[in-house]
Design goal:
Blueprint: H1 3-25, H2 29-47, H3 56-67, H4 79-99, H5 124-140, H6 143-166, H7 170-176
Helix pairs in contact: 1-2, 2-4, 3-6, 4-5, 5-6
Amino acid sequence: MRAGDWAGFAFFTFALALSILAGIEHPSILGAVSVVHNGMLACIFLVRRQPVKTDRAGLYLGLIASILPSTSFPDTVPLPLLVLGLAGYALVLWSLTVLWKSFGIAPADRGLVTKAPYNLVRHPMYLGELLLRVAIVISAEELWGYGMFLALVLIQILRIKREETIIAGYEEYKQNTRWRLLPGVW
């Protein structure tokens, strides 16, 4: 394993510990799924493929997206927003499960993944993250959370554009999977 893999493992193990502590202090279903998510990410850094090509500048965008706060999980989430947040988390976990050894924070070529949900939109994990975060931000009703959400949207768009230039076979993939993030929009 490379130093970056150990750093990712340490980062997400720390995030896992924090999410467990937060879940004990403020139990919620979104918090419980956060524990699963961070645990999966920590495990992936132990087994992921080494990249053929990487994007150092994209790494910084990925790190910012990983640590960018949207807000804390609110104690109560209205049911429609809870459903939206869980749908977003489900898409994140599904995407992560399909990517598994190809996952990375930085744009890198660890092999192109094209099976569902990656045949529906090219960046389903980012879509799931945005759905989750918008549900949290609206529920928390904290003004600064909206600014952080908009910053995350911008960062994810920049990450998308960088990823699409580094992965081998992407031109053909774009022909088969038209939409980047939102079907019918972009």
